Amino acid sequence: MIWKTIIYLAPPIKQIKDKKQMHNHAFQLVMLICKRIETLNNLNDQETHYAAAVATAARVDNPEVIEEIVEIFPNAIWVHDSEDHDHMFHFAVENRSENVFNLAYQVDGNKLRVMNMIDNHGNTILHLAGRLAKPQKLNLISGAALQMQRELQWFKEVERWVRQDYKERTNKGGKTPQMIFTEEHKNLVIDGEKWMRDTANSCAIVASLIVTIVFAAAITVPGGNNQNDGQPVLFKRNAFIIFAISDAISLFSSATSLLMFLAILTSRYAEMDFLYALPKKLIIGLVTLFLSITFMIIAFCCTLYLVFGRGENWVLIGVAILASLPITSFVFQQFPLLVDLISSTYGPGIFGKRSDRPFG
Questions:
Q1: Do the Cβ atoms of 272 and 218 come closer than 8 Å?
Q2: Looking at per-residue confidence, does 64 or 282 come out higher?
């Protein structure tokens, strides 16, 4: 009864449940097929049947199926298709199937030479990493700049696994992996530059307005100045101290934000800049911009309370509620982007060992 109520109130939960059940049923079906294949006496017949399953699982990023097949048929780790001579890790890289690719962390060291196999076109696995990801994979990532960053992360990760001489190896077309990467990602670099410039331009305008406002507020303090000594009339009030601190923080953070966005606008936008340099500048710019907006609103609230509040707490409460609206609006609009940037740049990443279970 409780489960039905949850499903009724939250339909996405039912979709997740149905998808999980479908995954389990497919997994059980694969296991039954493997047991059936195992009864075949001819090894070539066995390979013919499980090779297609391995290739398909690698393309759709299903490592569990591959693990079970390799558990039953250890030679499946070496299986390749007859057309291009691609093996499972070739398929994983070409289709950006990170969960399948992470199985490499579980492979015994002696079998890691599977990563250095070459296809019929002379391509190493690094050549395949240099190709542009398929649209359905790229569209899972928001923003052309973050898409370019993910492509660079793939290329750098695969580069760690290949032999040193393979990094400059040419295929039958006479192209190195880096040449392929540059050629296939030139349009994405242009789109990433446009996305970065548009974002930096918009945020720089906001930051410059905040700098102007809070600088003016620091000069014309609420309540005015004492004519005798020039001291602010309300400087002993707690609200005035909060105003002064908030205004100063807002000024310095907005100035920092403006400088970061100007640095983005004047960047050279080389391929490698999208890996760390540009995302780092954008993260700093967005964080400091958020701080400047927050403390500017706090300073404005303090000003209203000092000038019109007359010591009434209800005025402060009302102003605080209204002040939360622009801050909340900014959080809902920009915070998801900031989270994606931080996670993609400084997070644990999509690569790494996911299980201690031996593979191969």
A1: no
A2: 282
